[in-house]
Amino acid sequence: MTTTEIRGDHSSKAPNRTQDSWLDTLERKRQAGPFMGADHVNSLGLSTCAVHAGTHDDPRTGAVGTPIYQTSTFVLNDDQYESVEGGFARDRFIYSRYGNPSQWAVQEKLAALEGAESAIVFSSGMAAITAGVLAMVDKGAHVVAASDLYGGTYNLFNQEFPSFGMSATLVDSYDLDAIEEAIQPNTQALYFEAITNPVLKVVNIPALVEIAKRHNLRLIVDSTFAPPPVMRPLELGVDLVIHSASKYLNGHSDLIAGVVAGPRKLVDTVWPRLLNFGGSLDPHACFLLERGLKTLPIRMRAHEESATALAKFLESHPMVEKVLYPMLPSHPDHALAKSLMKMGTGNVTFFVKGGDMAALALLDHLNLPKQATSLGGVESLISLPFNSSQATMTSKQRAEIGIDPGCVRLSVGIEDAADLIQDFDQALKRISREIPTQPAENKEISHAK
Ligand SMILES: *Cc1c(COP(=O)(O)O)cnc(C)c1O
Known about the structure:
Layout lengths: L45 H7 L25 H9 L14 H14 L3 E5 L2 H12 L5 E5 L4 H10 L6 E5 L4 H6 L5 E7 L11 H10 L3 E5 L17 E5 L13 E5 L1 H14 L5 H11 L2 H20 L4 E5 L9 H7 L6 E6 L2 H11 L4 E2 L9 E3 L11 H6 L6 E5 L5 H18 L15
Helix pairs in contact: 1-3, 3-9, 4-8, 10-14, 12-14
The chain binds pyridoxal-5'-phosphate.
The site of pyridoxal-5'-phosphate (PLP) has 16 residues, from helix 4 and helix 5.
């Protein structure tokens, strides 16, 4: 019997990467992919990529739709045995946690949309973030990240990082000096969200790229709130782009998935984390995501159209204190948004007069938007940060990140703008009648729904 001891090694640069394996040799010659060898359409327009990239006609039947390869494993032949020995197993089908044709199809489409050499899909956005971040850092590493991160990502840095001997400093993403000052000798990565939630801050990615280059750090960006064609962070110089594909990318609020995309040599270092943490995406979910992606550019145009009209309507309404929509001149980051975003999205945040009580009443009076967390679906989704996404914060903590009373988080779907405007108009009219006469006893806040 042999005993193998596994120890962390503080002295080596990359102690948790398999030593002497091909994964360590980042100089190894790599091609983009893995792709199925179908026609590459990456040089074409984004809508064309969305429809055609990654698809292939089934050779046996001629089926136009991408088949769902509902299989856990694949028949092994000499070529596959060789791939394991030769260290190119990511380029062959062996076992579906490692790779599956349904995953490859949607990965190729995602890579084309992001302008990436390679992409990996995951069973959730958090699985993608965990694998992507941990692939970019070593034991003992430090990460500088935004102070208003998505809750799950905050928990990764706050709860999980210490058990890996890692640490993070969270800073205001507007404060470039503070970001640079937070960099320590063991800092290996910067982690930011392209557009933050819920105040829709637009982060200065080119400035972060410049800081990352100067300090030899990896820059990872969660671009869930700014999918292509809104933004393509890799083109701005970001090393790795991550999405919760549960939002705009899939777009139909009917699955949970994530994606990491970037240069092949970096994505190849993420792949072992997919194998080790196990967050692989089921073939049927791959099919749904691939189908959803076909309409991503056209959906984004519809989101933008309805959101812009509704944001302008809300801005002019006497019951609305303030509207935050980056493509409107009233947004504090409008100039940056104009330079970094190719178009607007469906996310609109606004503040109703009368505080959280009025906001709760508004939600109850609306007919079209669903009261639900999440975003990027074809249906409008509406929620209040104070009793959902930021419920664990105190009102002072919320105020520090711009969540003042009456804050409403709205993800405008692709419904007709006129119908949405009419619905908000009637709901706002009702609260303007009710709120001033609200008796004090009834001011209890309900967390139900
Ligand atoms: C939803 C979301 C995530 C997490 O994605 P899941 O698919 O729910 O795991 C990460 N980042 C942002 C910005 C999100 O909105």
